[in-house]
Amino acid sequence: MTTSTRGAEKSPAVLVLEDGRIFRGRAYGAVGVTFGEAVFSTGMTGYQETLTDPSYHRQVVVMTAPHVGNTGVNDEDPESKRIWVAGYVVRDPARKPSNWRAKRSLDDELRAQGVVGISGIDTRALTRHLRERGAMRVGIFSGDALPDEGTMLAEVRQAPEMKGADLSAEVATTEPYVVPAIGEKKFTVAAVDLGIKGMTPHRMAERGIEVHVLPATATAEDVYAVGPDGVFFSNGPGDPATADHAVSVMQAVLERGTPLFGICFGNQILGRALGFGTYKLKYGHRGINQPVQDRTTGKVEVTAHNHGFAVDAPLDKVSDTPYGRAEVSHVCLNDNVVEGLQLLDKPAFSVQYHPEAAAGPHDAAYLFDRFVKLMEGQRA
User: Annotated catalytic, 330?
Assistant: First the structure.
C-alpha cells in the first residue's frame, strides 16, 4: 500500500476488480494505492466499529448504506487501536459530521491513518456485481497520475488471495494483558486473541470474569498457566484452513474438558478441531442485520456478522467426533450456513457471528451468560 495524507477532495480515483470491472470516482481518505479482497457490509450504522475490527484485515470494505460518515469519529467506539480495513468504498460521504461525541470527520481519520478510499461510485451496482461474481481481489488507485487500466488490472491480479492467507498473528496482541472483572471477580478466562474486538473481553468483564488475553501464538501451557475456569477463542481474519496451531491448542482444551467458547474464527477453529472441514463462501456475511436461528431454543436472532469462511458440518444429524457428540446449534436463515456448534458430552460451544454486538444488535448477548453457566456447572 502506498498512501499520501494530502487532501483527497478533488483527486480522481479508480476501483479495479480482478475480473476487469472498473468504477471511477473521487478519492476519500488518503490518496494512493491499496489492494485487498472486495467485500460488502450491509450495516447502516457502526462504521467506526467495522473499520477497527481486526477481522477486516486485508479487505476492502464496500458500504451498502449510501450515506457514510454522518456521525464522524469519536474516541469511545473503536474496537482496536487502529483501522484495519485495507480500503474503504462509499457512495456519498458526509460533508460535515453531526454528533455530540464526534471529535473529527471520518475523512480526516482515514487520511490520518493512511487508509485509501474511494467515493462517488455506484456502490449498489458494485454490491450486486460481488453478489453475482463473488468476493474477489480489488485495487483502489487515486491521485493525479493514475496508471492505465491494463497496468492497474495486472497489479490487482498479482495481489495475494484471501484463500490460504494466515493472518491472525498479524493482528493479535504480541504480549499478554489482563482485562479485570467489573465488580466481584467470579471466574478467570484465558482468551486466545486471533483478532479480538475490544468489546468482547468487556462483555465478559461485565459478568465478573477476569480475562487474560493471550497472543495467537500462545500454547496450551500458556493457556493453563493463568489457571482458567474457561477458555475463549476470538474472531479474526484469514483462512481457517491455515490455523493449525490454534486447532491444536483447542484440541488440548477439549481433551481436558475445560469450558470453551469460540466466536467467528473461533467457531471455525472448533469445527476443524472436531474434524469438520471449512470452505470459502461466495461473498460472505458482513453487517449487523443477519437472521440466525438458535436451534436449541427455536429463537430467531438478528445478529452481527463478519465472515467469508464457514464450517462444513451436517445440519440434519448429530455427529460423532473424537470429543463426543456434536451438533449444529445455530443456522443462518438466509442460506443455511452453519452459524454455531456445540458438543453434547463436553462443555464447549461456538457461534459464527459476534455476540458482543458492537455496534449492535444485542439479541445474542445471552451467549456470554451461557458461557458463565458452563463454568458454574464445571465448578459445581
Answer: no
**Terminal Cα distance for the chain, rounded:** 53
Tell me how many degrees the CA angle 307-311-314 measures, rounded to the nearest 5. 140
Nearest 10 degrees: Cα torsion 127, 235, 137, 32: 90
Task: Please determine, for residue 288, whether its predicted confidence score (pLDDT) is greater than 90.
Answer: no
Can 264 be counted among the known catalytic residues? yes
Residues contacting 141, CB < 8 A, separation 6+: 13, 14, 16, 33, 147, 152
Biggest alpha carbon distance in the chain? 68
Q: Is 9 helix (H, G, I), strand (E, B) or coil?
A: coil
Eight-class DSSP state of 148: P
How many Cα atoms occupy the beta-carbon half-sphere of 274 within 13 Å?
Answer: 32
Helix (H) or strand (E) holding 339: strand 338-343
The catalytically annotated residue of 37, 57, 210, 264 is: 264
32 closest CA partner among 58, 20, 14:
14
User: What is the C-alpha to C-alpha distance for residues 50 and 41, in angstroms, rounded to an integer?
Assistant: 9
315 vs 39, 86, 298, 302, CA distance in Å?
27, 35, 14, 20
For the stretch 133-174, pLDDT in tens is: 999 999 999 998 899 999 999 999 999 999 999 999 999 999
In sequence order, the β-bridge partners of residue 326 are 319, 343
Active site residue 332: no
Cα(236)–Cα(195) distance, integer angstroms: 4
Q: Measured between alpha carbons, how far is 342 from 37 in angstroms, rounded to an integer?
A: 31
Using the structure block, give the residue that is written with the C-alpha cell 495486472: 154
Cell readout for 65 is 448504506
Which cell numbers hold the place of 131?
A: 453478489
Q: What is the mean pLDDT of residues 56-74?
A: 96
If we measure between CA atoms, which residue out of 196, 213, 238, 178 comes closest to residue 354? 196
The string of pLDDT tens digits covering residues 179-210 is 999 999 999 999 999 999 999 999 999 999 99
β-pairing verdict for 277-294 and 260-263: unpaired
Specify the pairing of strand 31-41 against strand 59-63. Answer: parallel
The secondary structure element, H or E, covering residue 373 is helix 366-379
